[in-house]
Design a protein that fits this description.
Shape of chain A: globular
Number of domains of chain A: 1
Distance between the termini of chain A: 69 Å
Number of helices of chain A: 6
Number of strands of chain A: 13
Largest interface: A-B, 30 and 30 residues
CATH topology of chain A: Apoptosis, Tumor Necrosis Factor Receptor Associated Protein 2, Chain A
CATH class of chain A: Mainly Beta
Largest sheet of chain A: 7 strands, mixed
CATH superfamily of chain A: Apoptosis, Tumor Necrosis Factor Receptor Associated Protein 2, Chain A
Oligomer: homodimer
Structural class of chain A: alpha+beta
């Protein structure tokens, strides 16, 4: 009996996955673009001061001493923290990718242009949607976060981080694009390094910011499709100089 | 003596204007693009309920009965209100352009692509920056508003309105673009009609929204340059269908 119940559960999961993919294809049906369905990661806790003493150690490839920000640390010895808020894991930059894949089962996608389909946008803040993106010989982390900066007014913040140093990150440009209901919103910027806290990027608002009503306009049946493209930054810089 | 003081004042004004144009050219130096310096209009008052009974009369070419929203009006007889909040003027759609030009001395610019340079972004909310844009046989109104939706947190809202009916507005697409400090933000949408209240567009957040820190990143010495382009909406619709 238990076997049949489990089988039925597995079939239901498959149907749900198929339905999500169908939705993704319908929202972003550009031929050849890889669509990835991303389910939410509900953040268990937020520690707003975890970036306080972070700046000094970023160039050494070590994530900041987040949980113990009041203590004095030798930057060479300090272990780094998982970019996911709800995770207490600490480790060096080189093993962040394997930690995210193995522990959090975060998908890693190949390709210069992909579509990130975040499901269940109605879930209460704080919630994260995360994917890794392998492109141009590097791994990037896309973080979409629902957060209440102003109480009772949740907003969506989307940014791209390089799993690498800030110097390496300066070589790239990422683009996030929303396109629905005769509206289009594009954000282009240089990715930050995961060594800089994702929380500070979001609290500074230096990312794509959507209020709830705009997120609803861009959503289809509770899912938000974000087109992602990464390029080397030479083109972007040349255009910026124009 | 008074004559010399006035002359000196006029010379100072000319120098200031020249400096603003120089800043505009520096921020957006794309050859051939018309740069317009727009000084702020400080809004004297805000009436959040003025759009409450607005919807019924918009298709008749009549602006909503804003100041008297609790009374019952015949939509054919109701005079319309100036899109500027601080102005008590009322009149029909056909005379909005001449009112804005003559009473408020709002510039009207020709050309498919222009650059709107809003000065003195540091001024406290509520503040409006407004320009008219004549293009494709119609007049459009660009409104940039600094407003505190959440107390103590001013935001910037930019939208484009057609000085025409909602049906006419559906034929166009407008694009607003910010480009500075290796960041680029583009917003594309169908313009609203001035017969729909600009306040409701802004309170819904269905426009380009910038928080203060992002506005600072895109600003140069207190001025924000917004590239504006208007097209007929056929192209946009075709892309949206992709």
């Amino acid at each position: 009996m238990l076997f049949f119940t489990q089988c039925f559960g597995a079939v239901l999961d498959l149907i749900h996955l198929r339905f999500q993919h169908y939705k993704a294809k319908r929202v972003f049906s550009a031929a050849g673009q890889l669509v990835c369905v991303v389910n939410p990661t509900h953040s268990l806790k937020y520690a707003p001061t975890r970036c306080a003493a972070a700046q000094a150690s970023t160039e050494q490839g070590i994530l900041p001493p987040c949980h113990h920000h009041e203590a004095v640390h030798d930057p060479q010895l300090v272990p780094c923290t998982c970019p996911l808020f709800s995770c207490p894991w600490e480790g060096h930059l080189e093993v962040v990718v394997s930690h995210l894949r193995q522990t959090h089962r975060i998908n890693i996608l190949q390709g210069a242009e992909i579509v990130f389909l975040a499901t269940d946008m109605h879930l209460p803040a704080p919630t994260d949607w995360i994917i890794m993106h392998s492109c141009l010989g590097h791994q990037f982390l896309l973080v979409l976060r629902k957060q209440e900066k102003y109480e009772g007014h949740p907003q969506f913040f989307a940014t791209m981080m390089l799993i690498g140093t800030p110097t390496q990150a300066d070589n790239f440009t990422y683009r996030l694009e929303l396109n629905r209901n005769q509206r289009r919103l594009k954000w282009e910027a240089t990715p930050r390094s995961v060594l800089e806290c994702v929380d500070s990027v979001i609290s500074d608002g230096d990312c794509l910011v959507l209020n709830t009503s705009l997120a609803q306009l861009f959503s289809d049946n509770g899912s938000l499709a974000i087109g992602i493209a990464i390029t080397t930054s030479k083109v972007h810089n040349a255009e910026a100089e124009m």
